[in-house]
């Protein structure tokens, strides 16, 4: 009998994996290494907590090792159409999540909630032990089915006041009787949009936030005058009610004492505030869009200029970025503003063109404008048409901004090489005051409001560099 020596086939070594891990297979049927699962549990839990609720729960099916992570991770509970398109199913899912997840809770987002029928159930959710220690709350009410009256905000929302760091409340009536007893010792970001409340209640609410850093107020009803006194606020964005026929319009914003304020961003010049007074804001660097009323209504302009005169040495000299709305554009009014901001480095102008405007103002070398002489390095002209009023307006900066580095034109009309050559001649670019300046023409979309995301992002970012971003996730 012939003995056949057959060498055993070498076994292909499978990659190492964590005990209990079920790695997926590749197209050849071989197992591949799951590198993500090698991360520590703390990192994986952080990843899971940043996902939408539905996606976070689905991670339990990734592998055996992932199964306990969702319940170990801080809960991010987002109650919206993505969780389920059916109201009754969505409510059933949320109740199950709160029963199964032990907490702690990081974030609760309730969007488009109609409170008439599910009021009791939502109150039950808010009192769930799973939500103890909640840090972020988003509560966006729906409107009543018959009429436009907003729902009343549930009092149980305020059980999270001691631990909240971020709060966003929209489209509701604020329970005024709660204001005096509120205290938000940890709250750093506050958004109120489409909320009905009185001035006294708002001031009481703000005084209950001792560490507040960013504030967004937009479309709220019942606020005619707002006075800001805060040692910690760094960024403020404000706008009046969206319905101009409302009984109380947003007439005046007073920055009384805000030693940490860096950015003041009116939301939309069309809705107010009509007047802005800056009494003390020694770190203010970014200002605008300034309301159109300040540019064209003489009494408001005088109020603004008087305030600047009183605080020029402490406040307005710090402003480096300014954004204005100018009808016309009106060169005389814009130049008057430039005199009030001597250290201005970047200027953004959005103009509603009026053919009757005549911008023939000559620069007086005996009465120099400090920012034009020493500091202004960038000018952006939005909604540029290339007609005589905006050509003469822009030419003033071409011929007089001594240290200009870049001038950008956001053009509202179609243009070609011939149009560009004509603009080059009419703007007298060959005679520019700053020989190293660049001039760029780009097609624009006419939008000019900065994204509200920059209200709460405290990074050193100029919101007007990206002010094509008008409507974002922070706009409900």
Automatic annotation (TrEMBL):
<dbReference type="InterPro" id="IPR006566">
    <property type="entry name" value="FBD"/>
</dbReference>
<dbReference type="Pfam" id="PF24758">
    <property type="entry name" value="LRR_At5g56370"/>
</dbReference>
<dbReference type="InterPro" id="IPR055411">
    <property type="entry name" value="LRR_FXL15/At3g58940/PEG3-like"/>
</dbReference>
<dbReference type="InterPro" id="IPR055302">
    <property type="entry name" value="F-box_dom-containing"/>
</dbReference>
<dbReference type="InterPro" id="IPR036047">
    <property type="entry name" value="F-box-like_dom_sf"/>
</dbReference>
<dbReference type="InterPro" id="IPR032675">
    <property type="entry name" value="LRR_dom_sf"/>
</dbReference>
<feature type="domain" description="FBD">
    <location>
        <begin position="370"/>
        <end position="442"/>
    </location>
</feature>
<protein>
    <recommendedName>
        <fullName>FBD domain-containing protein</fullName>
    </recommendedName>
</protein>
<dbReference type="Pfam" id="PF00646">
    <property type="entry name" value="F-box"/>
</dbReference>
<feature type="compositionally biased region" description="Basic and acidic residues">
    <location>
        <begin position="16"/>
        <end position="29"/>
    </location>
</feature>
<dbReference type="InterPro" id="IPR001810">
    <property type="entry name" value="F-box_dom"/>
</dbReference>
<feature type="region of interest" description="Disordered">
    <location>
        <begin position="1"/>
        <end position="29"/>
    </location>
</feature>
<dbReference type="InterPro" id="IPR053781">
    <property type="entry name" value="F-box_AtFBL13-like"/>
</dbReference>
<dbReference type="Pfam" id="PF08387">
    <property type="entry name" value="FBD"/>
</dbReference>
């Amino acid at each position: 009998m012939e003995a056949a020596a057959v060498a055993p086939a070498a076994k292909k070594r499978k990659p190492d994996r964590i005990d209990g891990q079920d790695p997926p297979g590749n197209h050849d049927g071989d197992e591949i290494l799951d590198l993500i699962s090698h991360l520590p549990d703390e990192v994986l839990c952080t990843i899971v907590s940043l996902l939408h609720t539905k996606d976070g729960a689905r991670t339990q099916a990734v592998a055996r090792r992932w199964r306990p992570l969702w319940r170990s991770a801080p809960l991010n509970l987002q109650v919206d159409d993505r969780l389920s398109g059916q109201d009754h199913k969505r409510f059933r899912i949320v109740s199950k999540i709160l029963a199964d997840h032990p907490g702690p809770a990081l974030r609760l987002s309730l969007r488009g909630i109609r409170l008439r029928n599910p009021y009791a159930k939502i109150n039950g959710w808010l009192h769930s032990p799973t939500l103890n220690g909640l840090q972020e709350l988003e509560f966006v009410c729906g409107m009543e089915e018959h009429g436009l009256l907003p729902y009343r905000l549930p009092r149980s929302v305020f059980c999270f006041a001691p631990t909240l760091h971020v709060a966003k409340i929209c489209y509701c009536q604020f329970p005024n009787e709660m204001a005096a007893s509120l205290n938000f010792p940890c709250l750093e970001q506050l958004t109120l949009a489409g909320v009905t409340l009185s001035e006294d209640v708002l001031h009481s609410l703000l005084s209950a936030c001792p560490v507040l850093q960013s504030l967004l107020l937009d479309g709220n009803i019942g606020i005619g005058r707002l006075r800001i006194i805060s040692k910690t606020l760094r960024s403020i964005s404000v706008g009046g009610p969206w319905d101009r026929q409302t009984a109380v319009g947003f007439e005046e914003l007073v920055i009384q004492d805000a030693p940490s304020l860096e950015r003041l961003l009116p939301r939309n010049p069309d809705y107010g505030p009509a007047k802005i007074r800056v009494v003390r804001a020694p770190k203010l660097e970014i200002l605008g869009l300034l309301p159109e009323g300040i540019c064209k209504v003489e009494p408001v302009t005088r109020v603004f200029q008087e305030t600047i005169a009183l605080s020029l040495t402490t406040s307005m000299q710090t402003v480096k970025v300014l954004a204005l709305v100018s009808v016309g554009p009106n060169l005389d009014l814009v130049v008057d503003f430039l005199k009030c901001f001597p250290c201005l480095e970047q200027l953004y102008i959005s103009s509603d063109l009026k053919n009757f405007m005549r911008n023939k103002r000559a620069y007086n070398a005996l009465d120099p404008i400090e920012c034009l002489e020493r500091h202004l390095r960038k000018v952006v002209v939005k909604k540029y048409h290339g007609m005589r009023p905006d050509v003469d307006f822009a030419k003033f900066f071409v011929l007089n901004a001594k240290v200009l580095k870049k001038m950008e034109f956001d053009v509202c009309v179609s243009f070609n090489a011939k149009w560009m050559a004509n603009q080059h001649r009419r703007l007298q670019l060959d005679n520019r005051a700053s020989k190293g300046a660049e001039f760029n023409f780009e097609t624009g979309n006419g939008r000019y409001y900065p994204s509200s995301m920059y209200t709460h992002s405290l990074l050193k970012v100029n919101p007007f560099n990206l002010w094509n971003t008008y409507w974002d996730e922070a706009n409900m």
